[in-house]
Write a structure and sequence with these properties.
about 300 residues; mainly alpha; Rossmann fold; 3-stranded parallel sheet; 7 strands; about 50% helix
Length: about 300
Amino acid sequence: MVASGATVTLWDRDAQALSRAASQLGAAASTVQLDLVEHDQVVKATADTVAHSPSKTIDILVNSAGITGPNETLAKYPIDAWHQVMQINLNALFYCCREIVPVMQANDAGRGYGRIVNIASVAGKEGNPNASAYGASKGAVITLTKALGKELASTGIRVNCVTPAAVDSPMFSQMKPEFIQYMLSKIPMARFGQANEVAALVNRFIYGASKAAVIGLTKAVAIDYVKQNIRCNCLCPGTVDTPSLGDRISAFADPVQARKDFINRQPMGRLATADEIAPTVVFLASDESSFYSGEAMHVNGGMTI
């Protein structure tokens, strides 16, 4: 997200982990140390983040805090451990959404703007044996995401969640080796996911939602002004070889392979150039497009065939 131009504030209770992450991300990152299961600390962290933000608001919230809890049958599951999993995986996420949604609702002159991405898990859909608390908490995250998304659907705030399979992370230290092998046996690719692969999806969620909003806004403006001889259209290009794309690719662990992957997704087997997009912009700005309004023009090398 930093590579895409975001200014980020990291929240965690581990001061050393915060320091390491901030040093890796550079000047675009700041930190707040808190315990997310304490509601009053989330309230204060929200106010502090807004106060120190260059824009004096919060546009994006990514809820990623979580623990697995012990691997144990439900009948023997420790009560304290069950509550701890729910506190961190569900309640903390609820506290963050509860305090930050009003900040987002005040954005865009009170019309509301924001992007919320909650990290759930495929375990919240499918369940895993000997991990009932984790699966139940992530299932609740999925349902909370749907409920909040419906509550905010008429605003400019979008709420989605990511449900990854097992990702190779420090959370593995909380699991029994046999449970880790069980999870691996369920993955068709026969490997665990990597954090950067999930992060890329989170970033695309936010980017995609923002561009969908642009299309919706384009159509709304076109309807409002169609009788006043004002035309409003938008352009939906495919993947264009630009400095922005270069920044995205450089953020991958293997930029060379990432570039190949981008190219392989293009039906024409290559990226677009800015010179190929510009003529459509000129056309939409000219009198030749006088009978076009509210259109989303695709220049994408066959991606929507």
